[in-house]
Amino acid sequence: MHFKDALGRYGEAIAARCLTDSGHRLIETNWRCGRGEIDIIAADGRTLVICEVKTRTSLAFGEPAEAVDEAKSRRLRLLATQWLAEHPGGWEAIRFDVVSVLRRAHGPAQVRHLRAAF
């Protein structure tokens, strides 16, 4: 496994734990279709949460969450529409979150959960 892939899996595992610790129920991780992937799909009560996870090892290129640009948010909205078409349910709302994970050389990771990030 390449370092970037391992780093991504590490960040997604940390993010999943962060979400479950805050009361979210995980529905699916790494959902894929021909158009792309949603890192985490979760429920926060009756709200469907589409969660993008960004992980970095330093702040040299900015905060991890800064990597979620307009094109990425547009693609996630499209993917969420497809997921909802395949998984109908009675959601009261949908929310797009970003979990930012900074993996430090020493000590625990720094995790920031940005609710309704876009």
Secondary structure blueprint with pairings:
Blueprint: H1 3-21, E1 25-33, E2 36-44, E3 47-56, H2 70-86, E4 93-102, E5 110-114
Parallel strand pairs: 3-4
Antiparallel strand pairs: 1-2, 2-3, 4-5
Textual characterization of the structure:
There is one protein chain. With 118 residues, the chain is of the alpha+beta class. It has a single domain, classed as 3-Layer(aba) Sandwich (Trna Endonuclease, Chain: A, domain 1), CATH 3.40.1350. The chain is built from two helices and five strands. Strands 1-2-3-4-5 form a five-stranded mixed β-sheet, sandwiched between helices. The radius of gyration is 14 Å and the shape is globular. The mean pLDDT is 94.
